[in-house]
Each structure stands twice: as C-alpha cells, then as structure tokens.
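Entry for the shared binder. Reason: the reviewer on the internal report wants the predicted structure included alongside the sequence.
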Amino acid sequence: MPARPNAALVLIEFQREWLDPSHGRLHHLVEDRDLLDTAVRGAAVALAAAREHGVPVVHVPLVLTPGAPELESWTPAVLGLRAAIPKAGTWIEGSTGVAFAEDFRPAPGEPVVRGRAGASAFAGSSDLDLILRRLGVTDLYLAGFATHVCVESTLREAHDRGYTAHVVHDACAAFTRAQQDHVRQHVIHHFGDETDAAAFAASLEAPLPAH
C-alpha cells in the first residue's frame, strides 16, 4: 500500500515552455531566476519521493490545437490568457514547447491529464477530477508553474471541489519573488496549506496513524 493512500502529487506544466532555455518562451520571462531553479530542484525531490513510496503522480500539461479554439468557450477570447495565448502561439500541440521537460517525463503508468483548457488544472474538459476519483485521492500536493496563475487557480478549484490541497512552495515558481510571496502570504491559507519538498518527502517516511 502507498505510504499515503489518499494523496497524489500533481505536477502542473513541467513542460519545455517553462524549463527549456533553448525552446521555452516562458522560461525567459521569469525575472527571479533563483525561483525557477529552486522549483526544479524541489519538484525533483518531491517526484522522486512520490515514486519511491508509491504515491500517484499526475501530470497536467497544457496542450492546445492551433489557434487555441479551446479557449474561445461560448464567448470570444478578448482578455486575459484566453486572448494572450493564441497571440503568443504558446502551448500548441506538436510544438517543441509542449513536450515534457526531460527530467519530468511521465513514467509508465503515471496519468497524464487530457482536455485541459484554462488556468486551473480542472478547467475545460480536463479529466483530472476523474483521474483523482478513480485513484481514491483526496489530498493534492501541487507543484508547478506559475505559482500565481495556474497553481493558484488549481488550488482554489481543488478547494471548492472538496479536495484537501497543499502547495509545495519550493516546487513552484512565479515570474517574480513578489508574485510568489503574495500567493504564499495572502492566498494559500484560504484554500489549503503549504509545505516544502523536504517535508513532503519526510511525511512519506512516517508510519501511517493507527486506526
């Protein structure tokens, strides 16, 4: 039995758009580089621990068809990311940027979310909720990019859907330290809590409480 049978590590956008210096357009928009470096190291620790202890790892990419019609919904994409992504041409199926970063490619048997279209990992026709329910998951440990956009959006929706959500803060990065600090200080406690990669890994070593 997994060390935490109701937990899952949810990796949001560990793709080359963020993590590849040669092909990632968003990679170059990160102003505080140490945040990104720290997030990569922390996510690697969390991922290794989850795999070692049999905790499910769920990968949440963003992959859109050319022109990103998935973001149109029932109204035209005028503002926000719905408008910005088609203009930027990021996250398009078949492009180099949507590939998983080498160190975060799904292992055999690890679920990859399909149908996501929006900031939250649950958005659009995402099958994340179905995957989590099938696995019996109630506790989500969130890692990924960007902290103040997709991680925060997922945290909020996970809370409203009834999940217990934890942000692995040193496995996430925003564009700036100010953005990262705002989420940690003013947002997370309303919808869940935060931990770090070392504490997450250590929790998997601890024995399950007796019933």
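Summary line for the report: The chain has eight helices and five strands.
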